[in-house]
Amino acid sequence: MASFKAIVIEKTEGAPSPILRDFDEADLMEGDVTVRVTHSTVNYKDGLALTGKAPVVRRWPMIPGVDCAGIVESSSSPDFRPGDHVILNGWGTGETHLGAYAEKTRVKSDWLIKLPTGLSAADAMALGTAGYTAMLCLLALERHDLRPERGPAIVTGAAGGVGSVAVALLAGAGWHVLASTGRPEEEAYLRGLGAAEIVTRAELAEKGRPLGKERWAAGVDTVGSTTLANVLSMTRYGGAVAACGLAGGMDLPATVAPFILRNVALLGVDSVMTPKALREQAWGRLARDLDRGKLAAMTRTIRLDEVVQAGRDIVEGKVRGRLVVEIA
User: Fold this and answer.
1) What is the C-alpha to C-alpha distance for residues 260 and 254, in angstroms, rounded to an integer?
2) Quick one: pLDDT at residue 16?
3) Which residues share a beta bridge with 197?
4) What is the model's pTM?
5) 256 and 139 assigned to the same domain
6) How many domains does the chain have?
7) Cα distance from N-terminal residue to C-terminal residue, the chain
8) What does DSSP say about strands 216-221 and 235-243: parallel, antiparallel, or unpaired?
9) 178 and 62 within one domain
10) How many helices (H) and strands (E) does the chain have?
11) Residue 286 lies inside a defined structural domain of this protein
């Protein structure tokens, strides 16, 4: 096809106005693999790009979308052949490189991994960067030698994309999971994913003491700011918290007390530039470990023409779990 459908953001003086329109294939960016996109997803970061709430987009015009699953259409890389089913997460797609909300994308082969056995393209995008990040957090905690017998684990922002998958993964691995959320109406949903207890957002949102009562051995934090500071202050001796999000802010109003008095570790988790070997490990674990029933329970499917509104909704905290975008 000489042109294809894509959501395109043009540079404007005010808020961006993403539109679904025809895009010329000749305007795709450099890369050695062209992928026919079949599925994508909507992450919080995508919402920021679509609404302009944060300076995610750094090239104009831009096709947003940081994740895609699809089929290789053409390749000059020895690693991929036409017909291969592949996944792409991060690497600046939707930010500096034309992204996934389109029927086609052209990218560097180093950015792609093959779709793991046992996962469909829709499953992979039901997980997307959010689910893959949740698994990176679990792997980080395991590398720190944390196991369920050490005590409970807390997940903040638990009703969101990363949080939902983190709750399901931790529960599936045998952890007693505390799910923190500001949406009390989601209690049944979170318990269905495996949460044993619900912690209200208010318990962690206000400034607390440098050291609080020891409540959990591990944590996955998607919120940052005061919430992360409080989670750290209540982590048990020798525990650790994997931090992967900033929905509550980029600041960290904490003290060194948990680190030097309780030997607590703060584990930073990046999903954008993760080396390929770790990406493949994370996706392999997701294919093997995640309960498909729980994945289905947290997932809703939308069309490409519904993505712009979904981006607004996710930034406003109206999206529960995961969204899969059917491109075709």
Assistant:
1) 13
2) 84
3) 178
4) 0.93
5) yes
6) 2
7) 14
8) parallel
9) no
10) 10, 15
11) no
Q: For residue 1, what pLDDT is reported?
A: 53
Look at residues 83, 69, 88 and name the one whose alpha carbon lies nearest to residue 31. Answer: 88
Question: Of 220, 253, 268, which marks where a domain is finished?
Answer: 268
Reported as a single tens digit per residue, the pLDDT across 28-56 is 999 999 999 999 999 999 999 999 998 99
**249 and 317 part of one domain:** no
Q: What is the pLDDT of residue 8?
A: 98
User: What is the block-wise mean pLDDT of the chain (328 residues), using blocks of 10 residues?
Assistant: 91 87 96 98 95 92 97 98 97 96 98 95 96 97 98 97 96 98 96 97 94 98 98 98 94 97 98 94 95 94 98 94 94
Looking at the structure, tell me whether residues 104 and 217 fall in a common domain: no
Residue 68: CATH number of its domain: 3.90.180.10
| pLDDT at res. 178 | 98
Q: Which amino acid is at 144?
A: H
Domain ends where: 253, 268, 283? 268
State both tokens at 268. 């930073």
**In whole angstroms, what is the distance from residue 92 CA to residue 255 CA?**
33
| pLDDT at 175 (0 to 100) | 98
Q: What is the DSSP letter of 115?
A: P
Range of the domain at 171: 129-268
The answer to the question of residue 24 being in a domain is yes
Residue spans of beta strands (DSSP E) within the chain: 3-8, 19-24, 33-41, 67-75, 85-89, 104-107, 112-114, 153-155, 177-181, 197-200, 216-221, 235-243, 265-268, 299-303, 322-326
For residues 70 and 135, state if they share a domain. no
Residue 292 falls inside a structural domain: no
In a domain, 45, yes or no: yes
**Cα–Cα distance between 9 and 23 in angstroms, integer?**
12
The reported pLDDT for the residue numbered 108 is: 97
**What are phi and psi for residue 80, nearest 5 degrees?**
-135, 145
